[in-house]
Amino acid sequence: MKVYVTEDYKAMSRKAANILSAQMILKPNSVLGLATGSSPVGMYHQLIDWYKKGDLDFSEIKTVNLDEYVGLEPTHEQSYRHFMQENLFDHVNINPANTNVPDGLAADPQAECQWYNQVIRSMGGIDIQVLGIGHNGHIGFNEPGQAFEQETHVVDLTERTIQANARFFASADEVPRQAMTMGIKSIMMARKILLVISGEEKAEIVKQAFTGPITPLVPASILQLHPYVTLVGDKAALSKLMEK
Ligand code: F6R
Questions:
Q1: Which domain holds residue 125?
Q2: 40 C-alpha vs ligand 1 centroid, how far in Å?
Q3: pLDDT in tens, the chain (244 residues)
Q4: How far, in Å, from the CA of 228 to the mean position of ligand 1?
Q5: Is 145 left (phi over 0), alpha (psi -120 to 50) or beta?
Q6: Which of 30, 180, 26 is nearest to 117 (CA)?
Q7: Domains in the chain, number
Q8: Which of 84, 129, 138 gets mutated to test ligand 1 (max ligand atoms within 8 A of its CB)?
Q9: Residue 138 catalytic?
Q10: CATH number at residue 17
């Protein structure tokens, strides 16, 4: 595992964007696994900057996102499809047909998950998967206690995740109760993992995930077994990991 400690969020975003850019330059038709949330936003904005300067080309890039809420239309302000359009896709020369996010309005979410697994396979798998980490160690919407062996599937959100996400909705009642998420197995099948982490409030879970036992109780701990993980975090987020 490679660890990059940066001064702050901005430097973290730049370093992570450098790593994704290197991937895109070395393999212009890369399959990028993408995440939403606050951690990768700065990285996406940095990629947009470099694209606008003429240093990056998305024309052959394919993307596959980690997750989506069940029940939200793609244009809903809180849908992950909308997040990706706003924070990356609408600003670069990516072919919309090459961007994949599970369809929150799919009539049969289980069937949508099966289809999504096929999409990932048909693209030849994920070259690099971007991840953030939740306070409870979740990656994607894989909450503590779930089996490690799953590919994309439907999950019930925990009360803690609903409360944590309530800030983005008018009230906690409006937060969807279910999501579709790549499973731990899908994530582990990606050839490379890029985990971006910022802020002191993540310091304890990062230490547990990377120095504690590998357990479904801390879903990110499985990454200890992945052969190619790059962790990019600001010094606040990595403070406890570095003490070890
Ligand atoms: C996002 C996702 C989540 C987030 C995690 C961290 O697609 O699947 O697992 O990566 O909740 O979120 P932030 O970055 O907002 O702290």
A1: 2-243
A2: 9
A3: 999 999 999 999 999 999 999 999 999 999 999 999 999 999 999 999 999 999 999 999 999 999 999 999 999 999 999 999 999 999 999 999 999 999 999 999 999 999 999 999 999 999 999 999 999 999 999 999 888 899 999 999 888 888 888 888 998 899 999 999 999 999 999 999 999 999 999 999 999 999 999 999 999 999 999 999 999 999 999 999 998 7
A4: 20
A5: left
A6: 180
A7: 1
A8: 138
A9: yes
A10: 3.40.50.1360
